[in-house]
Amino acid sequence: MHDPIADMITRLKNAGDAGKTSVAFPYSKLKFSIAEILHKFGYLKLYTKKGKKVLKSIEVELVYEEDMPKIQGVKRISKFSRRTYTGAKELTPVRQGYGMAVLSTPHGIVTDKEAKKLNVGGELLFEIW
Question: Which of 32, 33, 37, 97 could cysteine-pair with 93, CB 3.0–4.6 Å?
């Protein structure tokens, strides 16, 4: 695994497509803060840190609306091969406002709407809808 964020969001999308209620992936502070954001905006029902020391993992429960997963799609924007940075003024709505973009900024991990409100740009990690 070379890109842990892409692995995380792909696991979330695939678990939803397969009808799973929960999924687990290896722990990192970045992935845990991304899970916090996704929980805050209703894409995850619950997220917890499991294990100790080296064997830590994050277990999340997915949200379903009328037997359809809330996470319909994800797209990794900034990759190891090509980092993508954006300013607050260049942020556009994802899927005409039905999705959100997640950024890594000096203020931490935030969504595109929060970044516009804080007037801060950063690395555009991924889009989710």
Answer: 97
